[in-house]
Amino acid sequence: MNEVAPLSVFAGLDPNEQFRGLRQALAPAVAAICKRERGHARRTAIVELFRSALADGREIARARLEARGSGLACARLISALEDELIGAIYDYVVRYVYVVDNPTFAERLAIVAVGGYGRGTLAPGSDIDLLFLVPYKQTPWGESVIEAILYILWDLRQKVGHATRSVAECMRQARADMTIRTTLLEARFILGNAELFSEFRESFDREIARLDTREFVSAKLAERDSRVMRAGASRYLVEPNVKEGKGGLRDLNTLFWIAKYVYRVREAKELVAAGLFTAAELSLFERCEEFLWRVRCHLHFATGRAEERLAFDVQTTIAKRLGYHDRSGLSPVERFMKHYFLVAKEVGDLTAIVCAALEEKQAKPRAIFERFLQPFRRRRSRGPQGDFIVDHDRISIVDADVFKRDPVNIIRLFWMADHHGLPLHPDALRTVTLSLRLIDANLRANKEANRLFLEILLSRNMTEITLRRMNETGVLGRFIPDFGKVVAMMQFNMYHHYTVDEHLLRAVGGLSDLEAGRMPEHQQLVDEILPTIVNRKVLYLGLFLHDIAKGRKDDHSRAGMEVARSLCPRLGFTPGETESVAWLVEHHLTMSSFAQSRDLSDRVTIENFAAIVQTMERLKMLFVLTVCDINAVGPGVLDAWKAQLLRVLYWETEVVLGGGHSAVDRKSRVAAAKAELRAALPEWSDEAFDAYAKRHYPAYWLKVDVARKLRHAELLREMNGASAPLATAVELDRTRGAVELTVVAPDNPRLLAIIAGGCAAGGANIVDAHIFTTADGLALDTIFFSRAFDFDEDEMRRAGRIAGLIARALRGEVVVSEELRARAKAHLPTDAFSVAPEVVVDNSLSNVYTVIEVSGLDREGLLFELTNAISRLNLNIASAHIVTFGERAVDAFYVTDLTGAKIASPQRQAAIKRQLLDVFRGPGARGTRTPAAAAT
Q1: What does DSSP say about strands 110-113 and 188-192: parallel, antiparallel, or unpaired?
Q2: Long-range contacts, 199-208 (Cβ 8 Å, 24+)
């Protein structure tokens, strides 16, 4: 047992003094161990002493963070703890291991903190970056000391980045490598020979810091662009990276690196005297830094590792640690994440300020600042409006009083940028942010301001860019207060990739791109529809407002309808146009819901949808709005299958609304689909193709895209004549980030349950399913499940094992329920999300079938458990429509009893509800969630 326990060491130290004296306080314990122990036993005891000291110090830092809440204080305390501990390790090594009584000039050594550690801040799980600074030539003593220190740090399970260099080597590498230059820019002396460090500092200032600042700034901004693209290009991703993401800590670090290099400052507070920040902007910098550090430290402590991504399963924990509560219809986690995104936005504002100042100082190349501009041409001339100028190919203002003289100029500034296709000067944007109080009720009621805003919304130039700039400066939220309520608002679910305001802007941008022909992957969807819409301003405003009431206690579609009725007259809409916008907002989810969870071959489905839509103009607008809405949820969400379902629903409804007439009737569309596939199979004979075509019902020809039809045709052709037809095929769906498994087998009531069970037993989480039956009694089922591996080869091996398991189950060689039980024992549940389960049994949605709609928290094996329960209820599943909205599953089953009749008995319906609800309450009810997405 150690004579001096670590806890007693800390008892006499003040954390407010950064554990100053810990190094000396550990010395008696080190001395006692060295006196008592020898060899391996001594080293083991020394490492254990330091390990206990490190753990106790971190525990003190954690307790102070939770009690007082300062993230920077926690990071500085952990950094100071490392300083003291490294000092104690150094003392042990030079006093008891490699002792030199009279060190020579060549045996000088300085231990220097660099990188993030050099700034004096460390997150609980961060790496320690060390520079061992030595004279021009290293000695055996120096090598041995450095090696001994590193081995002890590694034994303490510290993640150490290290380098051993002379001053000359540091200068040489700093000139050649921008990353090393940045690391050395943050160098901080810890211990050792101070003269050696001073020599290093003087050499760096003389030889490196005076190099071309433009090169350094260019490199840092290019590095930032690359980093942001890796972490996610938008600062509004709902699982942001606190360190590397856009608007995160690394952005603040980059700003300070640039300022430090260009303005020769040592501390952030010096940026005011340098003229880079105002006092208010410095205060904003410090608030952002503190908040992000607080989040990061809590994140590391909560996860027990250097986790930088605010994943869904820790957001609730962090929100609780930070003391957020329910308010204004938002949950604690939603309020926390809204705060986070507002801070990320403010970091973006600070970036713009620094970039503008650097440009004035000419430290920043034009190509870096506005990469999309023409080659540099300096000119300054009056624009078409007297209060504005064109400065360096950007719209700017003539003086700082432009907005005070006429507040409409705030909106006019953005209108001009869009109208002339030019970016806005950072100085103008900075003045806008300082003038937001001018956006009041009078400006919101001003006809000219509203006319200009509507022209921006309907522009065919830079709609999304202009609206986003208005949002980032705070103008959009002030001018449209209901939009301001959803700025930076996240939705705590795994479906939406972006915050509400970002989603709305991307949706409007998508519509603008469709009109301009910039979305070739979806252009065919709307080419024949979009040009025929009579009133495009109704469509644009409906899309801009469709989610504007998110976060309220009332249903956001109905609440949004009231917002539309209030806003439209202000923008000059007629009563009829106002009602059309309100209708679009109220029903913006209707078309995707019908398309993905209803049987589109059932006439009642189409009639029910047509009764809601009522007119062709509404159908067209709702179709285009739905396409843009789903596409703006996230990359790849609007895939070929969903697009085809929407197209089928549009065509079928067009027939009903047209009194039985359509531009393309069903028979013609089926014939066209057959002709398309025939042209893609030139090697088939006419007889063979005709026989094959007769095997599929019209719904198959209308719903399935040609690429899948081709694969199905080859698969079924290979099975011709098989006595026991059974085949599986696996493809990677890179658009959706999913695996596509196709199973062909004789149809039977338990087929879907067996397939779903095989997927679950193999650890595959189903996110979609396409169910078809051929005229000759075969089931053609395609299941989509989430990927588990980054590399295609690994994923295909996994998918092959799952396909093999399903094939064996269908042949009766294995029982999937037993495989599932074995898997369940090895997997622990998680429960970041809570979704109340619901079961609806409805006989009005089909003339032939009872529709059972089940919704609840998605998990592995859910579809198997649901279909298995339906089978136990002696029900036949005619079709299934599987949809996942992130963590929420919404599955619809079209069923009959064993006689082919609907389920009419109230007692039987109640039993169905009860047993399906039990699936969500059973042993697997808290299984893992899916990261998949399907609709909006």
Answers
A1: antiparallel
A2: 199/167, 200/110, 200/112, 200/133, 200/167, 200/170, 203/167, 203/170, 203/171, 204/170, 204/171, 204/174, 207/171, 207/175, 208/171, 208/174, 208/175, 208/181, 208/184
Does residue 652 contact residue 665 with C-beta atoms inside 8 Å? Answer: no
d(CA 568, CA 537): 11
Predicted confidence (pLDDT) per residue in 544-602, tens digit: 999 999 988 889 999 999 999 999 999 999 999 999 999 999 999 999 999 998 988 88
Is 3 within the bounds of a domain?
Answer: yes
For residues 556 and 562, is the Cβ–Cβ distance under 8 A? no
Identify the domain boundary among 479, 510, 538. Answer: 479
Q: Read off the amino acid at residue 726.
A: L
Model pLDDT for residues 643-693, shown as the tens digit of each residue? 888 999 999 998 888 766 555 577 888 999 999 999 999 999 999 999 999
Residues 342 and 413 in one domain: no
- Asked if residue 849 has pLDDT above 50, the reply is yes
How many Å apart are CA 475 and CA 477, to the nearest integer? 6
Which residue shows structure tokens 């042993």?
A: 923
| Residue keyed to tokens 């027990």 | 304
Cβ atoms within 10 Å, residue 377: 9
Q: How many structural domains compose the chain? A: 5
Per-residue burial over 475-506, b = 16 or more CB atoms within 10 Å of its CB, e = otherwise: bbbbbbebbbbbbbbbbbebbbbbbbbbbbbb
Strand 110-113 to 128-134 pairing: antiparallel
Are residues 872 and 917 located together in one domain of the fold?
Answer: yes
Domain residues for the domain of 406 are: 375-479
Contact 369, 359 (CB under 8 A): yes
Assess contact for 130 and 162: CB atoms under 8 A. yes
Q: How confident is the model at residue 448 (pLDDT cuts 50, 70, 90)?
A: very high
